[in-house]
Amino acid sequence: MSITYGKVVSLIISERFGPVVEKVANFLFKCQNSPLLFIKKGTDLPISKIRESLCVLIKYRLVRFKANKNENLANYTLDSDNVLLMLRYPKYLNHAKKSFGDESEMIIEEVLQRGYWTASELILKVYERLSTKYLTRLPYPKQDKAVPILTVDESEQNHLPNIDIKVLVMHQKGGKTDLPDKKVYWVVNFDRFHQDMRDHVICTAFSKKFDDNAGDIIRIFLRQMYIRTDPWTDISNPIPALEVKDILKKQAPSSHSLAFFDQYMSIIEQDNSKLLRKAGEASGGSYQIYLKDAFTQFVWELIEQIVLEKYDSKAARIFRLVKLKPYIEPDQLQQLAMIPAKDAKMLSYQLYEDNYLHIQELRKASTNSGPTKNFTLFHIKLNSVVRMLLETCYKTLLNTMIRRNNEKLLNKRIIDKKHRIDTILMAMRDQNATEEQMADIEEMITLSEKEILEKVNKVMKNLGTVELEVDDTIFMLQMFLVYQ
Q1: Which residues in 296-306 are b (16+ Cβ under 10 Å) and which e?
Q2: Which CATH class is domain 3-80?
Q3: Which of the listed CATH numbers 2.70.150.10, 3.30.360.10, 1.10.10.10, 2.40.128.600 matches domain 193-289?
């Protein structure tokens, strides 16, 4: 893991849990698989504080543990990827709200804030949502060991335990009754959200490239894929086109997607993403979904767009040429790009310096007739470029978070004053204060302070937007790496 990545993780932990937990997390980031005494030695914190910090991090699934060789002590490991997912929480909430309404959003929000919850505490509302697998069982120890091994059977992951409503009512009224599922906890299933986010990326890509009807057809294909295939497989099992057409007949009998279904299938099949391909003549008009190939193409397009925006159209043309010809000499590149030799040379080596292009040197075998000749060839290592861009995204996230914290620090006095006045106004509303009394309190913030607050709010909103958009890029790059 890079230094920049570690700084981003550290800032996220600090903002959400404070400096003590951050110190423990920083040590675990640097020294993975560390027992308790090693953490104490490396952080100089009291054992009690370290234990509290580890409990918090384990509760939110940010730290994993397993027994060491003698099975009596635990080694702790920071799950830095899960820390980074905390930036994605607003997207999970928004997706839950769009899919199932405000109640679902509140349920997911509560589980994210608490780390885990019992089904009794989420009763009735959760019951309707469990079939979507947005919530899953928290692993639990099945054997009594010094260092427990947390597991959960696949059959239990989404199976709701028996819940007695009478017991819940008695418990709510203050009766001394143990809840039947008090040791069965539920957590948010990030993979399920990522699956929906991945599908949204695919459908949106086809909607933008063609129209919404094409996106709807792809959405149905993806939904039917889950009946036959694991959601994260590279290539799906065959899906009959007639099955998709029948679903369209039931959902939208007068839609363009149904009326021109064969034409849509033709253009989708010919698309350069190669997402849908015929499963063969013998399969009778069935198609397979190639997720790996599709995300490889999406990432190529993303990188080309980044090169275009960062440099110019000439650099993008050079990048596309190297992509089309896996190995190409500088002289040949200059000729095919139809760019002045000086510009082509400067841009190609600029792309090389920034790790978008790579160089392969070939040496011609020496002979008695003359000196050895070297050949320099440009090529692209897609995995390396993706990882380089991920590192750039982490740097952007770090800069954005530092800037946000700096804005808060510079305007701390005015922000705190606004919070105090808002608290007073809230209390006055509860006491049915008059409009004149509340106006007097509001006037405690001067006109210049209001202007500063508006400016700060605008900057914060822009930084929040940047953070979400950078995460979109991170998600796309991570999806590519998932299928490698």
Answers
A1: bbbbbebbbeb
A2: mainly alpha
A3: 1.10.10.10
